Amino acid sequence: METNSRETLQADFDTFDISEELGFVLEEPLTHLPDYYRVWLDLANNLTHLIESRKLRDLVHNMPVLSPDLLSNHRELRLAHLTLGFISMGYVWQEGQHAPILPKALAWPYWLVSRRLGLPPILTYADSVLANWKLRDPTGSFLFVTLFPLAFIRHRSTPDHLRLKMF
């Protein structure tokens, strides 16, 4: 009886991507996606500069519409959601006139990734906290003081001064 309950519990953990050790915190989040998605990571890695120079929106408008179908596992989907979430926030809050609508090249893959994950297409706690970490020292232990965010926001007093840093 105990073995059957344990197997059932493990199956539930696996179904919902829950870690026995870390709970809902994503184990070993990825920092890279397949090369097909390089444009997303290039934008994400340069968000602060692109927002400050007011170039992000132009680059997003010229970005190809990429299919998320090549994202093959939960960790890739979570990194894509985190990346697209930060790009979306930067796009909306870049200085100048606020952008009420995301362009298709950003909105469509973000929506599809969100659907696959069962998350809303907005930067969530699941993104910004639970899947947004790496160990400062990969050989170290999982303690709060040994964690470093993959992406974080620095801001002054207004959203117009949003500061973003990925990876």
Automatic annotation (TrEMBL):
SUPFAM superfamilies xref list: Indolic compounds 2,3-dioxygenase-like
Pfam families on file: IDO (PF01231)
Domain of life of the source: Eukaryota
Signal peptide feature range: none
GO CC term (a single one): cytoplasm
Record's keyword terms, sorted: Iron, Metal-binding, Tryptophan catabolism
Ligase among keywords: no
Cross-referenced InterPro entries: Indolamine_dOase, Trp/Indoleamine_2_3_dOase-like
The keyword Metal-binding appears for this protein: yes
Similarity comment: family membership: Belongs to the indoleamine 2,3-dioxygenase family.
Name of protein: Indoleamine 2,3-dioxygenase 2-like
Organism: Acanthochromis polyacanthus (spiny chromis)
